[in-house]
Amino acid sequence: MSAEQRENITYLCDEFKKYNYISEEDYSRYEVMRGLRDKIGMGVRAGLTSICNVLGYDESITDRKVPMEGKLIYRGIDVEDIIENSKIEDRYIFEEITWLLLFGSLPTYGQLRLFNKVIAELRNLPSGFSEDMIMKSPSPNIMNKMAAAVLSLYGYDELAEEKSLENVLYQSISLIAVLPTIMVTAYQVKRHIYDKKSMYFHLPKSELSTAQNILRTNRSDKQFTEEEARLLDLCMVLQADHGGGNNSAFTTRVVTSTGSDTYSAISAAIGSLKGPLHGGANIKVIEMLDYMKEKIKDPSDDDEVFEYLCRLMDKQEGDKTGLIYGMGHAIYTKSDPRAVILRKNLSEIAEEKGFGDDFKLLYAVERLAPKVFELKKGGKDICANIDLYTGLVYRTMGMPEELYTPLFAISRLPGWCAHRVEEKMFGNRLIRPAYKYLGVDRKYVPIRERKL
Fold first, then answer.
1. DSSP label of 108
2. Do 217 and 289 lie in a common domain?
3. Nearest CA to 211 among 347, 88, 94?
4. For residue range 74-111, what is the model confidence (pLDDT) as tens digits?
5. Is 264 helix (H, G, I), strand (E, B) or coil?
6. Are 340 and 272 spatial neighbours (Cβ–Cβ below 8 Å)?
């Protein structure tokens, strides 16, 4: 932007500020559910779903809100049971949970083999797509490139506008299969164009799981450990869905309700997840962690960590926003089961990879931040959310920060697709909430009579 352009934009911003303002009192006066949330921060009921349930309050008690240990339910099954059984059976389960979310039941061995075969056959990009849609138009931001690439796939689908159940499911499974390939390709091109580093492309292998292929194709030597792949698979399962009211799933439903195509709906969801208040929060946690490591000498000293967090909330440390990233959730109160499961599975590998102190600091944040919140803002049930630990999961694997949120998108894609199908089949109404108009009536003034 030139100096003249900057001056012009500053003038235009000043003009905007003259005539645009909505006060906090107006939101209260008109009883607006800001963010579609009620007075205690719970989402207002905007639809029905049988895909996923997120519990932070005891639903058996109807006359008041009683906090409880968090529960995440996929199609009626507690995610903790899913994880425990996967360990017993010693299997990768992201593909199995994708089936569960899309179809509503657990697959048999035969069904899962068929599903894995279908996914494997759809992992490669269309001929010429990498060169024409990614290499010729690189982006420094992988989420933006993924969203653009998904939209571009519309042009490679002769039935892009066909909205039968069969076609929407085919499009959904195709996107679930190919998005990891898009992510890795976009990142390699970004490395070459913007970071001036070598890029390398490896084809996915049909016999490997999604988690294994992500690690293999993104590394120059294609090497990874089973421990790394199992942890990534676990992380992906925990992020596969989070109810129809989470911002990106709701975005998918809003776009679907208009009758738009699958590619537009999923691209919009990626744009939603990119935001730092949604999927981008894991990067903010890592930034916060690095600030903490600069100032905290002993990660095991709770008093030192507590004092730092107090200064952080007072906007004296970190990014000076006063936010403790990775803490608090719109629904969970006493605990986020995803964070609990990740913490239990992360500690050992973090120590082995040399990130033991990082883990200790984050665990200290989880333990001490509720006390800091109580001191600074009064009593309220607050717990760590999954974003507190996902960034460190990716860091232990050597994943670049540019891929933290894209990995979240790949994980959440099965949930988005399940919500698209459900909204298309059973929603059957354009989503259109109301906004209260606060403008003042005025007369049109001819341009020759207008004055500054």
1. P
2. no
3. 94
4. 999 999 999 999 989 999 999 999 999 999 999 999 99
5. helix
6. no
Token pair, residue 148, equals 């653009």
Kindly write down the DSSP assignment for every residue of 409-447, as one continuous string: HHHHHHHHHHHHHHIIIII-S---------PPP-----G
Alpha helices in 122-164, H assignment, sequence order: 129, 142-153
| CB neighbour list of residue 70: distance below 8 Å, 6 or more residues apart | 54, 55, 56, 329, 331, 332, 333, 334, 335, 336, 337, 340, 383
Domain count, the chain: 2
Same-domain check for residues 204 and 111: yes
Q: How far apart are alpha carbons 412 and 278 in whole angstroms? A: 12
- C-alpha angle 13/247/435, rounded to 5°? 55
Residues in the chain: 452
Domain that holds residue 75: 70-277+399-427
The domain that holds 294 is classified in CATH as 1.10.230.10
Give the orientation angle of helix 247-257 with respect to helix 404-422, to 10 degrees.
40
CA dihedral angle for residue 250, residue 255, residue 261, residue 267, rounded to 10 degrees: -60
Q: Which residues contact 332 (CB under 8 A, 6 or more apart)?
A: 54, 56, 70, 383, 385
Averaged pLDDT score across all residues of the chain: 94
User: Which residues of the chain register pLDDT less than 70?
Assistant: 40
